[in-house]
Fold these 2 entries.
Entry 1:
Amino acid sequence: MEEKIKLSPESFEALPKAAELDNEKIAAPSLTFVQDAWRRLKMNKGALISLFVIILMMVVAFGSTPFINHDSLVKSAPQYANLPAKIPGVPINGLNGKLKVSGEWVDEYKQNNVPNNKYFVLGTDYLGHSLAQRIIYGTKISLIVALVATFFDLTLGVAYGIISGWRGGRVDNVMQRIIEVISSVPSLVIVVLMLIVLKPGMTSIIAAIAISSWTTMARMIRAETLQLKSQEYVLAARTLGESPWKIAWKHLVPNLSSIIIIQTMYTIPTAIFFEAFLSFIGIGISAPQTSLGVLLNDGQKNFQFLPYQMWYPAIVLCVLMIAFNLLGDGLRDAFDPKTRR
Amino acid sequence: MRKYLLKRVFYMILTLFLVATITFFLMKLMPGTPYSNQQKMTAQQIQIMNEQYGLNKPMWMQYLIYLGGMLHGDLGVSFQFSNQPVSYLIASRIGASAQLGIQAMIFGVVLGIIIGSIAAVHRNTWIDTLCTVLSIIGKSVPNFVLAVLLQFYIALKLGWFPIADWGNFSYTVLPTIALGVGPLAETARFIRTGMVDVLNSDYIELAKAKGLSRYGIVYHHALRNSLIPLVTLIGPYTVALMTGSMVIENIFSIPGIGEQFVKSILTNDYPTIMGVTMLFSAGLVAIILITDIIYGMIDPRIRLSGSGD
Amino acid sequence: MKLNKFAKLGAVAVLSAVFLAACGSKSTSSSTKQVLNWDENAELPTIDLSKATDRVSFDTLNNTNEGLYRLGKDSKIEPGIATKTTVSSDGLKYTFTLRKNAKWSNGDKVTAKDFVYSWQRTVKPSTGSQYAYLFSGIQNADDIMDGKKSPSTLGIKAEGNYKLVVTLDKKLPYFKLLMGFPSFYPQSQKAVEKYGSKYGTASKYMVYNGPYELTKWTGTNLSWTLKKNNDYWDKKNVKLSAINYKVNKSNTTAYNLYQSGKLDMTYLNAEQAKQMSNSKELVTRRGASTFYLEYNQTKKEFQNKKIRQAISLVIDRKQYVNKVLGDGSTVAKGLVASGLSKHNGKDFADEAVVKDATATDTAKAKKLWNEGLKELGVKELSFSILSDDTDSGNKTTPFLQSQIEESLPGAKVSVTNVPFKTRLDRSEKGNFDVVVSAWGADFADPISFLDLFTSDNSYNNGNWKNTEYDKLIEASKTTDSGNTTKRWNDLVQAEKILMQDQGISPIYQQAQATLVKSKVKGVIYNSSGANYNFKDAYIK
């Protein structure tokens, strides 16, 4: 109070023109939303490895199409039925053609008079099909089922949820009742009906998934949208006269991304398991095609004696799921504006 | 609020009516007859039996009769179990399924919340990764595989629990775990995600600044807010679990409704299919209404629509 | 740190639950005193014998109730309620004298009237019995089923309380065997009327006159108990005090229960049977059911005999039963199951065997196939094989598909596995190309099989027609029905015609592999009719 600092115009000095402008400049390069997301995804090692694993599996599964087709799947060799894995040059019990039969390791290849140069890397199933071949094909089918379900989730489910939550009132009411009705009709009834209209197999399964898989996503999205609707930035956008479509795309979807991604990560196993469930009750995919669900179900029946028939497909499924989930986590962190720090 | 409730109950009835109608007509499209030995029956016998089951009447009449019966709790007579009323069949089978479903849900949600919270608090550490991987594995293994493994290793090899059958609490442990791992994994992941979001928000910073302990913050602020997306999920999930899991009931030889339902679909037991579907649907719409109400309670930001317009 | 408190709490809760539960499980252990713990793989739908249609119901009725005869080992006729039987010289009239010491579990005596009432009830169309067709041949039965005559005209009369007279329209050589089948057992009118619509829907809504009484069956549950019936006339020869049934739909579960001693018998699936093939406890129950291919002969391609023969010749049945099924099923010799029926010491299936009917000869098959295609004027043939979604059905179709596609050039096979009821519906409507069907004999006579393929039989889904076959079957029922040898030869001849023409292609005769604890003795299993008879069973 006592001492007043005396400021005179001389105390101030004008900056050179260039520096003045520079000060306002953003140091980091300007990135689009996607570029930024990709940059952050790259920093997440787990997600990157998962991405790699998924791409690899897809390449193997879909790339196998010219080699593993109807003709090769249909060939059976019952004389080689139920052989355990035998990999050349691997002397580990369980991978050298030996199987534990009532506590002792028995060379099944010798017992069944299989020629010495015959190797099944992951063993064979009850018709003597190579299990490795079946798993690759099964992965492909399961991936297709998963992708179809994801597609309906991301399009129908998300759009439905946003519209329902955003519009509210009567529209919301009607849309929610429709969801209730759809999720009340058991999907098994739908599948059985598909069997008369279509043949058992992929088409029926996909149709059933298309009808019922997206409802959970729609409900989750609606719930979140209801919440986001009253957030300040949405209100601001509304006040500024932004069109609903733009608000949905620019504000809602990015903020919903964590829910969307997590829910998708659950849709994928749910779809794969639905297909597996159908094979559990015997009306899944039809021979000679197969899926991871069919293989798991076959393996589950003989688990006490031929554990490898369950373990191998289970391991593949688990790896696939873990990869999908870690990637999902990474994507979520990358896309969600809230985690951008 | 009362007006809102009345309105919702009206919608509930409307939904149930729609489900009944759709299922009824879908059922009529299903191939085959309920008789397992039709080819050995005379035309006269088939005609008389159709009359007894009311299958000879025009479809609209069958539909009206069915709706009428349903109004006073008569769901018809099962085809598969000769002369057995469907309501009795459902009543005698639903108990085991419901108990199992609720136990599995409690097991899954409670453990899931704990694991999810721990993961969120320790996010981006090895604890987080461990929790994530565990919950992913839980969700990635189909429950019939898990059930077979539990039965073989825990029940047969270790002898800790009964292998199968239905009786006292010990019989329910393995099926509960097999059934509860799904909700557990899902809950854990949702809680973790929700909580990470919440923990980053400003009011948590404030709470931290006020000197609240880490778990105090989690308990008082973060948990409540991250429960919201979970509520949407848990409701329908519980109904689905309570109305039976065919797979688990099959593997553990449990006299539940899920297994019976699949069987009735495969044997064209129309009245049973309808009965179970209606039960499921009633449970579902009721739980959706309840979640919507709970919503309003735990998140004051959500206005119950309907009271407004 | 707060985390520990949190974690500890959770851990304690989980552990204590586990511990408590573990303690609880020890208290239940099965006692071994003349109590049998039996596996079952389907639920019990009814014990109303007029309405029973399935194996479990018939098995249960066979042990809780009793008819004029009991079927012993190898379907041998043993005394039941009847003590004496006289047959008229033309074979159309049976007079049974009933024992006076047979009682219902409510204390009433079992009388001839109970038989009359029961039979009339089953045949009456309004009862809706799906097994009433077995009564065909008994006087007026067909007309009653068609609603043309009243049930009281049925050829069964009670003369007093202990004499029963049955009149037939035509001679039924297997009539006595039928009397051992539950559909022909007596029913107490008092009980049927007392329980009304609840009759037979739970163990308490039924009366019993057999070696055991059914208890603990609520009508929908998955376990029940057969308790020794102390009112049974021959109770001194019934040694078991109880048989506990438990339904396990999963073979894996049943096997685990068996391993831990909770079950004395378990059904095995194919894979389990293969693995247990050296076990001393393995008991293979050969059933009188044959699985066969039916060709839809309303379609041009399957009217061609060479095509049918080629398909049949290409199937390596031996490999199929041994390597793929492996449950003890055997290669079918023909339509009629082996071991079903004997005449002069010779098995019907051996007598009627036709060379190549179920053999494998790929070279010959290819030749016939190419000739067949040429006759049809086509280069390739695609068709679909229909089957149901059972474990064996799911194994059969892929196998057939691979066998046919690999060996027959130009064959394109798709497979369709649908639920059992849907399969029946499609078969009946002729909505198939080739279907895997199965038939199990209701009684131990070849006619039970051969009747299926007469031109107008509703089970002849493929519409195979052969006038000579029809004539032979008709002759066996009419002109030759009195002469055992002639009738036998007619039937042998008929089967040979069917096989030579490959009207159907038999694949395998089903067997059910089971494990039975070696302490279990005296269980009788018959391949046709009701399977299990526990009257003489005991535990050593």
Entry 2:
Amino acid sequence: MRWAFLARRLGFYLAAAAAAIGLNFLLPRLMPGDPSSAIVEELERVSGQQVPAETLMSIRAIFGNPHANLAQQFADYLRQLSHGDLGVSVVNFPVPVADLVWQALPWTLLLVGTTTITAFAIGTLLGVVAGWKAGSRLDAILTPFTTFLSSVPYFWVALLALWIFGFVLGWTPLSGGYDADLPQGFSLAYAVSVLHHGVLPAATIVFSAFGGWLLGMRNMTVTTVREDYVLLAQAKGLSPRRVMFRYAARNAMLPSFTGFAMALGGVVGGALLTEIVFSYPGIGYLLYESLQKRDYPMMQGVFLLITLAVLLANLVADLAYVLLDPRIRARG
Amino acid sequence: MLKSWKVRIGLSILTFFVLLAVLGPVIGGDPRANDISSISQPPSAHHLFGTTQFGQDVLAQTVAGARGSMLVGILAAAIGTLIAILVGVPAGYFGGAVDNGLNFFTNLFLVMPVLPLILIVAGYVQGTGPFVIALIIGLFGWSGGARTLRAQSLSLSSRDFVLAMRMIGEPHRRLIFFEVLPHLTGWISAMFLHGMIGGVMAEAGLAFLGITDSGSISWGTMIQAAQQQSAVLRGLWWWFVPPGLCIALIGTAATLVNFGVDEISNPKLRQARRSVVVRARKVVEA
Amino acid sequence: MSVLTVEGLTVDYVSGERPVRACDDVTFELRQGEILGVAGESGSGKSTLITALTRLQRPPAVTTAGRIEFRGTDLVSLNADELRKLRWTSLAIVLQSAMDALNPVMRVGAQFVDVLRSHDKTLGNKDAWAKAADLLGMVGISADRVRSYPHELSGGMRQRASIALALACGPELVVMDEPTTAVDVVMQRQILAQVLRLRRELGFAVVFVTHDLSLLLELADRIAIMYGGRIVEIGTAESLYTKPRHPYTRGLRDSFPPLRSPLRKLTGIPGSPPDLRNPPPGCPFHPRCADRFDGCDEQRPELLTIEDHADHTVACRLYPSGDDQL
């Protein structure tokens, strides 16, 4: 029955992915005006020449074709997508959007992936401790502080951090993801520069994100600690550490994992804004550029990718949940 | 409810900002006036919060920004809460196929990264005023609330008194409006508060990306202007610190209220309050 | 010889403006291998008594006075480490709902293994699992169930598993908190029979707390009746059943159908249990008592031994200085 649960979740995410693709298809067609003509005009203005027939086809497939009905358009759109074709960037003409996105993706995965996991781990751990010792001095300091922290906009924390550590103290570079003077590749100097540039953006994301996890985990732990099985574990004379982790935290974590879905979108969104503050060469910065310069193809491509990535991360969280909660079988 | 200090402090801060938003134009001075004699000046007696690169008074801008940000926040929360009620309550009340459909829809919006979605839509309708921005934020930010309301009305509608009234043929409309909804007011107001913070934050994010109407003043546009003029790299901290701090304060206030309300409704959390623990320890030591 | 001597145990809840006294001057004694039943309505302080006895209470509950002497050591004065050594090897507990008392994400066997190994460092993992299977077998659960999760067992099995768990380290005293309320009557009888059999074989003493007096009449050697945080009567099961002294005990006896003897007319007790936040002055039962007389709302009766019945004490002004007038 565990498999039934998995199959249902998988089905949901497939439907969600289909919805995301459908949304991506519909959005430009629902918007006032005719984005595809606007894009073609813009391309011709930028490049100073007529858009080749092949590019025209691709743009119409993605952003709307005044000469075809919606069903036909959707078929064209899907065919286009299946080739990995997301259109051509207006700003970086004639570079395909897919190429730009693939270039930026590793940076974002590195930054957002590691920081999300780190923030989740730190927040969960501190939340368990604060909830276990609820009402203690640690809890009385940590919880209000993180309440404040979880209400602060990510990009504002990023600005502050940049000002303090980059400008005032001069410890970290002020922008970028690597030292532009170094050749890109697997050299030690390059790796060090990547770390040096990444540490501050990463630290600000972790700093802004862990509070949310902490608060949720703290309250779940406070509630779980008063469950009978934790009481019984204490009555058994197990070591406090074992009671805290194997009994209280282990169960308190489960809703936190379910909440992962709801929080992940926010964390990714916040992380994207952080990239912008640091001019970090990831997806967020790409999105920023495309919004600033009305590069619709790039906007759409980035959105599709982010959505699919978030859905995938959620699926992984669901899989982990099945491993963590044996009762899933009964419910499945 | 006012017994909890968390609720009291949270509500005080919120009231303060609402008053600021309402009375701002009267007390704050002209946020757009350029004082050429003081450009990029740090806080002083003349300009308490300092001035921007354009010689505008940061205090006046922060006060004016309260109106811009709160307006979007409250509008977005109203729209989001309304949708959450329309989707969540019928799903929980009717169950069955209605629930399956609406719940799928809710879960869909729950797992979608909302900010990028809002960005894209706002990107297409660029340069729009606060009303359109609030509409977009509200339209995409209702899913969490709908989920809560669904769960609550599900448990409500399976209670004896609702079941009994259903049996005697009371119309659904009447039951929903007079029996189910009144029991949900606590949840709905918490949701509204949550939505308002979400709205203020999302507006700030959108403004930061330069998507909102550049003519309007909000805390987000202030931070964006500071970022555009490289305020960080020039050390003009007084330009971007106040608006961010205001956002954080409002967010903290709302979280405090929600925490306080949680403690009132969940006795387990109430027992974990510091005052209780300290009192217990004192009794033991005495 | 007594296993447990409780003297003047008083527990307050300190969360509100004024402390709420949930256990008030509770005193009793438990002999080796004896089953003491504690009966009372909800709100009588019996659950508070359990967490206080086992030293498992959390704020806002605080033991403000009294001693809990277990084999000569006062549990109230022990620190956490000393207490932990005593737990389960000497003092075990069975909670009301086994569904809630077993960790839902751990295999049943693992919940035996961790306690076995934490109290016996020399015990290997494999031996511990084998011992867990033996313990389950002792309450009639087949050995292959050690690998099950709690939700995979039936309600009765879970409850029996919790009893087996309580006996894992050979305790001298097992505190049981209504362990049969969550199961049907047939299962209830099986479990009680098992408790009696195991007690006979292993010789542990039991404090059995329940709201169901008729059940105690079958099971317990002696019975204590709690009302409003106080013990109002203690006696042997026999004498409490045939000759309950306290008006409350009488009311309680007459409001439950007896398990074996022929049916009597059932009568309830009018009124509701006292509000502990605002206890009535004098005898806590006087507002509901049909036999009250002048002074019951002023003087608080003490527990006194009834003349010629050394094993029967009662706190009621109908029996001044132990005169047995009824």
